[in-house]
Amino acid sequence: MRGEVRVARFERDGFLRQAEASVGRGVSTVSVKSKEILEVSKLKSQIADIQNRKKQGLEKLGNMVYTMHLRNAFDEVRLRTKSADIVALDEQIKQKENELGEIHAKAQEALGKPKPIAICGCGAEIYERTKFCGKCGKKVEPLR
Ligand SMILES: [Zn+2]
């Protein structure tokens, strides 16, 4: 019909996925969320590993100090080296925690942005569940 923007039947799940894929950035909510969960759990287990290594490192450092005390021979260089190893682990933990924040922010961005499913004759993007073009006001009609 003239005066109408014809877009394919986007109510249907199958087509919706196809439309989103063709738009490029379109990712389904489910895949965004499951990807986020997967990446978050991977990072959290990496953080736990590093924290474990940190704990072991601190224990070794404590033993080292105690042994040095018993021998009354403090080796400052060794203590500094061992401490620096632990600082490096702390930095790795901080970096992984930043990545966690980034993953969450990216997922939110992907979920929050409306996904265009068609382009109107006027050049404006048409989004899911819209009845009229936001720019020129043409009626959006699913194809039958
Ligand atoms: Zn339009």
What do you see in this structure?
The protein has helices spanning 13-23, 29-71, 76-112, and strands at 4-7, 116-119, 125-127, 139-142. The N and C termini lie close together (12 Å). The protein folds into 2 domains: 1-26 and 115-144, no CATH class; 43-114. By secondary structure, the protein is mainly alpha-helical. The longest helix is centred in the middle third of the chain and has 43 residues, at 29-71. Helix 2 (29-71) packs antiparallel against helix 3 (76-112). 7% of the residues are buried. The chain is rod-shaped and about 85 Å long. The strands form 2 sheets. It has a two-stranded parallel ribbon. The chain binds zinc ion (ZN).
Q: Helicity, in percent?
A: 55-70%
* Strand arrangement across the biggest beta sheet: 1-4
Tell me about the largest β-sheet: 2 strands, parallel
On the 0-100 scale, what is the average pLDDT? 83
Low-confidence stretches are 8-13, 21-25
Radius of gyration: 28 Å
Task: List the domain count as a whole number.
Answer: 2
Shape: rod-shaped
Global structural class: mainly alpha
Report strand %.
5-15%
Ligand set: zinc ion
Helix-strand string: EHHHEEE
Number of strands: 4
Distance, first to last CA: 12 Å
Number of helices: 3
